[in-house]
UniProtKB/TrEMBL annotation:
The gene is PARVB. SUPFAM superfamilies: Calponin-homology domain, CH-domain (SSF47576). Belongs to the parvin family. GO terms for molecular function: actin binding. The keyword DNA damage does not apply. Residues 63-170, 230-337 form the Calponin-homology (CH) domain. This is Calponin-homology (CH) domain-containing protein. It comes from Anabas testudineus. Signal peptide: none annotated. It is found in: Cytoplasm, Cytoskeleton; Cytoplasm, Myofibril, Sarcomere, Z line. Gene3D superfamilies: Calponin-like domain (1.10.418.10).
Length: 340
């Protein structure tokens, strides 16, 4: 009989906790349709759980961000034969994050290759996140992720981490701008569940995101001496036309005429004195992807010629970002200005 009473008491405690969670979650301030699981309300004192509002999941920009990041990870880890399909299910145990960080940083982490237990997974995550935080924190990043949030498949925390890595390592991708989501935050204070809806900004503008780590002479020029911009552009136009004129080509607008990558490729061939086979690039590119391919190929030719990797992304050149185009052309100018 005593055992039966204890069992009944435990069931009532769990039932009370579920009822407490239900009452808190059904507060008027919460968006409708939030999918709450019983475990989301079973919190320790002074802890919290964050859930993504389903309406945010259906946002087209949010879906685009997921796709861009998944495609980027799969491209980076192709040699490891790792295929990511779902960020929550594939990133929580630390395996993918470990491989991605090692590939991007060139640094090998001292962790077990395969970890099945929860303790082992969290230990791996701890090592990976310590390395990530050590790298990013000096650059002013606010750490919006933790071992517990990643391991509990908190998609917002996972996205913050991946966006930060993509931006820091200047990934050759274009993150959708101004992606924000609403999350439901459930906290337990003095035995009472408290709920709130919070807006989280995952991305800002491309200029702000990519400019976070890169301030150079062109930033200063455009911010403080825009009157001198035309002088620089004129010098660069004179330089590129000196060589492109050999093919009866002429440039009058830097940002638009180099955006499809064709002139960049031809210019590299002229500067290095070789013919670029037409099957290596799109002579009349039509899609965004074809233009990115061309600019990326031009960047490869530059590096083959001994130049440093351009401080610009192919996507930004294609998207008519003047500063990015100026950086690429100025790099060519400084290296080939005396060539005939």
């Amino acid at each position: 009989m005593a055992g039966l009473l204890c069992g009944t008491k435990r069931k009532k405690q769990v039932s009370d906790l579920h009822e407490e969670g239900k009452n808190a979650i059904n507060a008027p301030m919460l968006p409708t349709g939030v999918d709450i699981h019983p475990e989301d309300t079973l919190l320790e004192e002074n802890t919290e759980r964050i859930m993504l509002d389903p309406t945010s999941r259906e946002n087209l920009k949010f879906k685009d961000l997921l796709k861009v990041l998944i495609d980027w990870i799969n491209s980076e880890l192709e040699e490891d034969r790792i295929i990511v399909k779902d960020l929550e299910e594939d990133c929580y145990d630390g395996q993918v994050l470990q491989k991605l960080f090692e590939k991007l940083s060139g640094r090998k982490l001292n962790v077990a290759e395969v970890t099945q237990s929860e303790i082992g997974q969290k230990q791996k995550l701890q090592t990976v996140l310590e390395a990530v935080n050590e790298l990013l924190r000096p650059h002013g990043w606010t750490i919006e992720w933790s071992v517990d949030s990643i391991h509990s498949k908190n998609l917002v925390a996972i996205l913050y981490l991946l966006v930060a890595l993509a931006m820091h390592f200047q990934a050759p991708i274009r993150l959708p701008e101004h992606v924000s989501v609403q999350v439901v935050v459930v906290k337990k204070r003095e035995g009472i569940l408290q709920t709130a809806v919070v807006t989280k900004q995952l991305t800002s503008t491309t200029e702000m995101m990519m400019g976070r780590f890169e301030r150079d002479a062109f930033d200063t020029l455009l911010d403080h001496a825009p009157d001198k911009l035309n002088v620089v552009k004129t010098s660069l136009i004179t330089f590129v036309n000196k060589h492109l004129n050999k093919l009866n080509l002429e440039v009058t607008e830097l940002e638009s005429q180099f955006a499809d990558g064709v002139y960049l490729i031809l210019l590299m061939g002229l500067l290095e004195d070789y013919f670029v086979p037409l099957y290596n690039f799109y002579l009349t590119p039509e899609s965004f992807e074809q233009k990115v391919h061309n600019v990326s190929f031009a960047f490869e030719l530059m590096q083959d010629g001994g130049l440093k990797k351009p401080k610009a992304r192919p996507e930004d050149v294609v998207n008519l970002n003047l500063k990015s185009t100026l950086r690429v052309l100025y790099n060519l100018f400084t290296n080939y200005k005396n060539s005939e």
